[in-house]
Amino acid sequence: MSSVSTSVRDRVEQLRTTITDHNHHYYVLDDPQVPDAEYDRLFRELQAREAEYPELATTTSPTQRVGSAVETNFAQVIHRIPMLSLDNAFSADELRDFDRRVRERLNRGKTAGESSTKEHSTEDHSTEGEGSKEERTIEYVCEPKLDGLAVSLHYQNGELVRAATRGDGYTGEDITANIRTIASVPLTLRGGDFPQTVEVRGEVYMPRAGFDRLNQRLGGRGEKTFVNPRNAAAGSLRQKKSSVTARRPLEMCAYSVAVSDESALPPTHWKGLQQVSEWGFRINPEMSLANGADQCLEAYEALMAKRDRLPYEIDGIVFKVNRLDLQQQLGFVSRAPRWAIAQKFPAEEELTVVESVEFQVGRTGAITPVARLKPVFVGGATVSNATLHNMDEVRRLDLHIGDTVFIRRAGDVIPKVVKVVQDKRPADAGVIELPAQCPACGSDVVQIEGEVIARCSGGLFCPAQRKEAIRHYASRKALDIEGLGDKWVDILVDSEKVETIADLYRLRKADLIGLERMGDKSASNLIAAIDASRQPLLWRFLYALGIREVGEATAKGLAGYFGSLEAIAEADGNALQAVSDVGPIVAGHLRSFFEQPHNQEILQSLKQAGVIWQTQEITAASMPLHGQTWVLTGTMEQMTRDQAKQKLEGLGAKVAGSVSKKTSCVVAGEAAGSKLTKAQQLGVEVLSEQGLLDLLRGHDVEV
């Protein structure tokens, strides 16, 4: 007689049933029924019960999905029904030929699509798929062709007993231990109308988001990353330790069912998939029914249009004759069924050769290596260039000039090098090195320690950064040159009227008259606005220079501490870091900017043009909140939080995003949440929106 009480057994069974149901809603239906915290509580309770009573442990318990550290032996499994591959169609004509062959073998003649569209309506779209022998169209199930690994799952009395890979179609590998770790695979079938013995087939795949996270994690540990989600899914499913598989974000989607007693099968493939869904499997929500080749082609175009928006990768669409009796009548050829075909989408990966590497300069000065490729057709377009992102990526790939590489292009995504074929590297392959000088202007290329991106340091001079530098200089938070918006910056630069910010102050009304949409009054207004910016406050001018990481608050801190631009330009890294908000990286950006002769030349040109930055207003009186840290939370009625932030920073405060012991004050608007609670716990002063308005008015700030 067991020592485990009935109440404990009942509770364990109840927990398993509840957790299994929650898993089904979360992983299969995408419809969570409880918060994560509640799920975790139930799961931990079940773990504790099973640990206390080992005799209650079962292989089908939800707790067993964590996998084992014991190495798996991939024994061979012979498929009772071969897992054959599919023939492929690469064009509309090839799909129509497939449909014609199906109808001819079934003695059905031509489709309505080859004569008139009217007869398309003769096919019954019911899930039973019944129809007369005189029908002229065939009903097909249209299924997204998931880019993963085909698997076969065997259930006995509703319990998963074996899982195998497709292998060569006749013999696969036993991967039961690893399959058990996948949350969307039911360990026991739901309901009670399943056969005693049943085999469900499907595709194991890795969603895009999970793939990206996995590669980031592997790359962060210096480990080898995967080329694509299919490669990642296959590698994860064949791990020798199922505990490793359990940590991989795998999913499984069912696409067919076979049972030992075939009389138990529904009459159509579509109905069979609905049955599989009721047993607890995920089926693809993008599936549809189509009558004849024309509707199949419409389904193909519709699916390809949304391909890049799907959370997983697909490489085509599979068309299957819906009625199982017709499938049986059509039969198989040596390697594929006659009743199904895959129409492939344009390939997203191809091999080509890196012929050279060039370095481009972005509008913010980022230096990006770009691979020049031997042209290759991939993702529906001919590709001759691919981004390499940064030198860390070049080193991670171990890329050399002359290498043969995998190129990936999905939809409108910029082509990317994802893998180097090391075995094909030529003896004279060239090493890729970061240039010391900017290819656009010759300024030094700098890479601050701790940053991935290398940048041109000639921000005010570099042609590649010209428009961005002028836009920022004229922006509202900088020198606020009214009327000098993005479009006018484009016109002035493209017409070669302005090359640097110093050229703005040399513009005359006559230079502007005649430009597109520039009349007499507009020209006068723009010249007046530029003239009005000749005497900016030092902090505004410093911010307007566009130095990396130097925002408004940092600019105010630097201006208040040093008092002049010359003192800031001459300060070394240690002196700069004496200012609040200035750390080693910001100090490095400041030193790089002021050390460039081109930038000094433009500063001198600004002086000669009459630009004189003012310092007298950066005083304790005008910056009464200097050194204080404020936090804004909740909703404000009389101003936005951005406006409130700007006004507080105008008084010298630093506005942070979180509350700590160093916080000076929290402004709490309507529906303030955790930040207000934490401020109260720490004893931090709290102001209402009205309190903030009173404070601002007391310092003569317009509200």
From TrEMBL:
<keyword id="KW-0460">Magnesium</keyword>
<keyword id="KW-0436">Ligase</keyword>
<dbReference type="GO" id="GO:0005829">
    <property type="term" value="C:cytosol"/>
</dbReference>
<feature type="binding site">
    <location>
        <position position="462"/>
    </location>
    <ligand>
        <name>Zn(2+)</name>
    </ligand>
</feature>
<dbReference type="GO" id="GO:0003911">
    <property type="term" value="F:DNA ligase (NAD+) activity"/>
</dbReference>
<dbReference type="InterPro" id="IPR001679">
    <property type="entry name" value="DNA_ligase"/>
</dbReference>
<comment type="function">
    <text>DNA ligase that catalyzes the formation of phosphodiester linkages between 5'-phosphoryl and 3'-hydroxyl groups in double-stranded DNA using NAD as a coenzyme and as the energy source for the reaction. It is essential for DNA replication and repair of damaged DNA.</text>
</comment>
<dbReference type="InterPro" id="IPR018239">
    <property type="entry name" value="DNA_ligase_AS"/>
</dbReference>
<keyword id="KW-0464">Manganese</keyword>
<dbReference type="Pfam" id="PF00533">
    <property type="entry name" value="BRCT"/>
</dbReference>
<dbReference type="Pfam" id="PF03120">
    <property type="entry name" value="OB_DNA_ligase"/>
</dbReference>
<feature type="region of interest" description="Disordered">
    <location>
        <begin position="106"/>
        <end position="137"/>
    </location>
</feature>
<dbReference type="InterPro" id="IPR013840">
    <property type="entry name" value="DNAligase_N"/>
</dbReference>
<feature type="domain" description="BRCT">
    <location>
        <begin position="620"/>
        <end position="697"/>
    </location>
</feature>
<dbReference type="InterPro" id="IPR033136">
    <property type="entry name" value="DNA_ligase_CS"/>
</dbReference>
<dbReference type="InterPro" id="IPR010994">
    <property type="entry name" value="RuvA_2-like"/>
</dbReference>
<feature type="compositionally biased region" description="Basic and acidic residues">
    <location>
        <begin position="116"/>
        <end position="137"/>
    </location>
</feature>
<feature type="binding site">
    <location>
        <position position="143"/>
    </location>
    <ligand>
        <name>NAD(+)</name>
    </ligand>
</feature>
<keyword id="KW-0479">Metal-binding</keyword>
<feature type="binding site">
    <location>
        <position position="441"/>
    </location>
    <ligand>
        <name>Zn(2+)</name>
    </ligand>
</feature>
<dbReference type="InterPro" id="IPR041663">
    <property type="entry name" value="DisA/LigA_HHH"/>
</dbReference>
<dbReference type="InterPro" id="IPR012340">
    <property type="entry name" value="NA-bd_OB-fold"/>
</dbReference>
<dbReference type="Pfam" id="PF12826">
    <property type="entry name" value="HHH_2"/>
</dbReference>
<dbReference type="Pfam" id="PF01653">
    <property type="entry name" value="DNA_ligase_aden"/>
</dbReference>
<keyword id="KW-0862">Zinc</keyword>
<feature type="binding site">
    <location>
        <position position="203"/>
    </location>
    <ligand>
        <name>NAD(+)</name>
    </ligand>
</feature>
<dbReference type="Pfam" id="PF03119">
    <property type="entry name" value="DNA_ligase_ZBD"/>
</dbReference>
<dbReference type="InterPro" id="IPR004149">
    <property type="entry name" value="Znf_DNAligase_C4"/>
</dbReference>
<dbReference type="GO" id="GO:0006281">
    <property type="term" value="P:DNA repair"/>
</dbReference>
<feature type="binding site">
    <location>
        <position position="344"/>
    </location>
    <ligand>
        <name>NAD(+)</name>
    </ligand>
</feature>
<feature type="binding site">
    <location>
        <begin position="85"/>
        <end position="86"/>
    </location>
    <ligand>
        <name>NAD(+)</name>
    </ligand>
</feature>
<keyword id="KW-0235">DNA replication</keyword>
<keyword id="KW-0234">DNA repair</keyword>
<feature type="binding site">
    <location>
        <position position="320"/>
    </location>
    <ligand>
        <name>NAD(+)</name>
    </ligand>
</feature>
<keyword id="KW-0520">NAD</keyword>
<dbReference type="GO" id="GO:0006260">
    <property type="term" value="P:DNA replication"/>
</dbReference>
<feature type="binding site">
    <location>
        <position position="438"/>
    </location>
    <ligand>
        <name>Zn(2+)</name>
    </ligand>
</feature>
<dbReference type="InterPro" id="IPR013839">
    <property type="entry name" value="DNAligase_adenylation"/>
</dbReference>
<feature type="binding site">
    <location>
        <begin position="36"/>
        <end position="40"/>
    </location>
    <ligand>
        <name>NAD(+)</name>
    </ligand>
</feature>
<dbReference type="InterPro" id="IPR001357">
    <property type="entry name" value="BRCT_dom"/>
</dbReference>
<feature type="active site" description="N6-AMP-lysine intermediate">
    <location>
        <position position="145"/>
    </location>
</feature>
<dbReference type="InterPro" id="IPR036420">
    <property type="entry name" value="BRCT_dom_sf"/>
</dbReference>
